[in-house]
Design brief:
By secondary structure, the protein is α+β, with helices and mostly antiparallel strands. It is built from 1 helix and 4 strands. The protein has a domain of 48 residues. A 4-stranded mixed beta sheet has the order 3-2-1-4, with helices on one face.
Length: 71
Amino acid sequence: MKIYVRPRQKVGEGVKQPMFRVVAVTGDSEEKIKVRATHFRKKELEMIASDTGAEIVILEHASDESGKSLD
C-alpha cells in the first residue's frame, strides 16, 4: 500500500499547522483505508504508515521550464 502526499503550499515556516495533504492511497482491495482528514503532520503520516504497513510517497512540486508553478 502507498500513501501519496504533497506539501501544502499555504503553510509558512514555523506555523503550527499540518504540512502535508493526502493526494491518493493505493493498495490491495483487502487492505482498505479511509482517510477522513485532508491535512496531516509528518508524524501522523508516519504513524498511519507503520500501523498499516504502507509506504509514504512525497510528491514533488511541479513547475514548467520557466520556473512557474503548474498549479
